[in-house]
Amino acid sequence: MRTRKRILQTNLSNQGGAFSVAYEAQKKLQDEYIFDYFSPDDFVKNDIYKHLLSMGSRCIGKSDCKNRFLKQYEIYKSFYKYLMENNYDTVHIHSDTAWKISVYYLAAKKAGIKHIVVHSHSSGINGHYRKINYLLHLITKPIVKSAKYRCACSKIAAEWMFDTSKNVSIIRNGVDIDKFRFNSTARKNIRKKLEIEQKVVIGSVSDFSYQKNPEFLYQLVKEFQNDNKYIFLFVGNRENGCELKKLIDNDNNIDNVIFAGAVTNVPDYLSAMDVFVLPSRFEGLPMCALEAQVNGLYTIISDKVSDETKCSGRFSRLKLDTRIWKKEIQNIDFDCNRSNMDSFLDIENASANNMADEFKKIYEKNC
């Protein structure tokens, strides 16, 4: 039996969209490769963590430094030390900004790593201190652009990180098709549990951070507040979504929203929805929108998000105007048979199998 090659995936804990990309690829490639994970944060000890360990992964969480920028120096030191103490030929660095990639890239170069893959997952700056982060992104771009092995989840993510999509491997994000297929039993159970059997459910799955445009979601909720036919279902971390929740809680006229919080059965909640909305300010290639389309949901994204996100005929890309979104939602045909989506779905562009094949091509070339 061929010895499985270890690939070190960096800047990933076992949460978030970028991790989901690596995790889905790992599940498809586990007979040939073992993915280890080096994270700036602790790993959540959940079922996914246990599954990683069962596949032979090592999960390394480093740096207790609370200062955001000093933490990067701590990461550089601990990552370099880890590389010097372990034997890796290939390091795969994931991030949304050049300055975060640079921390790992420079440490890997110093440690003499032969093959360093840099992977862009976004097209903008999220979180706090966005102006400072953007400046650091611009300053460190030349470092990242010098990398030999460059990839991105979309053309717009490539241009954000490398200023071009030329000589960049575009590896479309992909999802587990069978896992996210529509489930009529789950739909019935979730809708009964939430007492929304007779409602048209407008939903979103997200951390509801700045990137996801919570202010627009709030305004969209207000568009429907006088129509009892519709209700909003928001799934995701309540702590990260506090801005959206604060806006809605402070509006005494709104009673058509359910915050489900973080859940472990996202596919079931997607099945309970009727339409999926993602009014993001920017994205790389949003996994949640792919998952929604695979589930058969009519999916609406903002025109700030790449049209590469489309993998279904039940899809719209609209400018950020709540009146336009409301009209689009009101005109949706909800009689579609979501149990048979193959005629609507571009499986090649949605499947994790194809994504994993692209990972394998890069690793075979490098290893």
From TrEMBL:
Residues 68-178 form the Glycosyltransferase subfamily 4-like N-terminal domain. This is Glycosyltransferase family 1 protein. Transmembrane segments: none annotated. Pfam families: Glyco_transf_4, Glycos_transf_1. It comes from Agathobacter rectalis. Keywords: Transferase. GO terms for molecular function: glycosyltransferase activity. Residues 187-303 form the Glycosyl transferase family domain.
